[in-house]
Amino acid sequence: MSSGLKRVLIAGLGNEILKDDGVGIHAIRLLQELDYFSLRSGIRVAEIGTALLDAAHLYEWAECMVAIDAMMGGNRPGTVYLLQGLDFGNAGLRNGGLHQLDLQAALRLVPECRIKQVAVVGVEPKEIDFGLELTHPVRAALPELMQVIDKIVQRLQSSESPFLTTAP
Fold it and tell me: What domains can you pick out in the chain, each with its CATH number?
């Protein structure tokens, strides 16, 4: 890449037919609708959902990943969490991201995976049940989620430390 910027994949995880479990998909659609990263080089925004291995070509392209998912940490619905680094250990959260083990396995299974830095941005769900809409507290968390994602992407593409030093 001529600009020298790191290639960043922003990946929406989850199951969109299970209400708040689909927060990653809803966030990606909002980013696309707002054309949020369209003018920045080296960024791809992708709905991955639950088909983690179908995105192998993206893991081969990207150097860094921001994964967006529902994350159960035991706090109030709509709470935004941030886990950083390749070791997604639960960082004090009771259950961690709903798809984090699958993401770790998928990255390990792709022989040409270039991703060296991963940040998982999660939102505490209120309800995981059949339905296509996010619950009110999770939908209300989307603006904060967008700000956190933007900060992480800026840091990943800069010469600064790629990780935020304080919780969002």
Answer: 8-157 (3.40.50.1450)
Pairing of strands 96-97, 43-49: unpaired
User: Which runs of E-coded beta strand occur in the chain?
Assistant: 8-13, 43-49, 64-72, 80-84, 96-97, 117-123
pTM, two decimal places: 0.86
Burial tier of 5 (Cβ tally within 10 Å: 0-12, 13-18, 19+): middle
What three-state secondary structure class fits 131? strand
pLDDT digits (tens, 9 = 90+) for 71-94: 999 999 999 999 876 444 444 333
Q: Is the dihedral of CA 97, 89, 120, 58 positive or negative?
A: negative
pLDDT tens, position by position, 12-42: 999 999 999 999 999 999 999 988 888 788 9
Instruction: Please name every residue paired with 82 in a beta bridge, in sequence order, or none if there are none.
Output: 121
CA distance 18 to 10: 21
Are 57 and 107 a contacting pair, CB within 8 Å?
A: no
